[in-house]
C-alpha cells in the first residue's frame, strides 16, 4: 500500500491554470511564494494541533483530580494519583507557556492568509496592482514582491522578538 504524502490544503503544489506574465513572475511565485505559503500553512496547523491536544489533555486531567480526591478515602493510593495528575497539569501548562503554541499558530495563520490575499490581489490586478499597461508589469511585480517580502519579514521580526523576550526572561 502506497503511503500518501500529507500536503497542506489551500496551497497547490503547482498552478498550471495560471498563465504567468513573465519568467521572473513565475520564478518568484513558484520558487519563493508558494513554498513559503505551504510552510506557513503547515506550521500553523502543527501548532494548532499541538495547542489543542495539550489543552484537551490538560483539561481532562484537571477534571479528574476532584474524582481522584474523593477516592483517597477508599484507596489511599489515589493520593499519589492526585499528586501525579497535578504534576502532569503543571508540565502541560508549562509546555504550552514555553512553546507559545497558540501565539505561533495564530501568527503563522495570519501570515499565510496575508500572503494569499496579496497573491489574489496581484493575480486579479486589484488594488495597487490595477493596471493593464504592459509597461508597468515589472513595476507591479516589484511591488508585489516587496509587499510579500514585507509580510514575511514582519512575521520573522515578530518571531525574533518573542524569542528575544523569552531569552531575556531566563
Provide the descriptors you would attach to this structure in a database record:
170 residues, mainly alpha, 75% helix
Task: Describe the model.
By secondary structure, this protein is mainly α. The chain is 75% helix and 0% strand. The chain has 4 helices and no strands. Helix 1 runs antiparallel to helix 2, helix 1 (23-70) runs antiparallel to helix 3 (101-124) and helix 3 (101-124) runs antiparallel to helix 4 (137-169). The longest helix is centred in the N-terminal third of the chain and has 48 residues, at 23-70. It is elongated, with a radius of gyration of 24 Å. The termini are far apart.
In short:
With 170 residues, the chain is an all-alpha fold. The protein has helices spanning 23-70, 78-99, 101-124, 137-169.
What string, H for helix and E for strand, traces the elements in order? HHHH
Average predicted local confidence, pLDDT? 88
Low-confidence stretches: none
The span between the termini is 49 Å
Rg over CA atoms: 24 Å
Overall SS class? mainly alpha
Number of strands: 0
- Biggest sheet, in brief? none
Which bin fits the share of residues in helices?
over 70%
Characterize the overall form: elongated
The amount of beta strand, in percent, is under 5%
Tally of DSSP helical segments: 4
